[in-house]
Predict the 3D structure of the following.
Amino acid sequence: QVQLVESGGGLVQAGGSLRLSCAASGINFRFSVMGWYRQAPGKQRELVAANTGGGFANYADSVKGRFTISRDNAKTSLFLQMNSLKPEDTAVYYCAKLRTIQGGEVDYWGQGTQVTVSS
C-alpha cells in the first residue's frame, strides 16, 4: 500500500520560510521521481519542483532561487525548503510520485498540506 504523507504546512508572513516534508512508503523511493505540486483556489494544479534519486532537479520558474527540493533516500522522505515566501505561494501543496522530472503523469498523490502566506 502506497502512502505519501505531507507535513510542515502552515501560516507564515511574506518573506518567511517553511519546510515541507513527505514521508513515503510502499514505493521504491530511491529509484522514484518525486515532486511537489501546488493548487491555489481557482487555479490548476502545477508542478513546483521534482527530483530524481540521483539528485537531478527541476523547478518551476516562479520558485527558482527561493525553493529547494531535497530527499533522504535512506529515510524515504522528500522535502521542500521554501524561502522568501510570497502571498502568491499560498496553495495546497501535494507530494507526488511522478513518471518524469518534467511532470506529466503522476502515479500517486499525497493528501496535501495547506501553505498560507500573509502580506
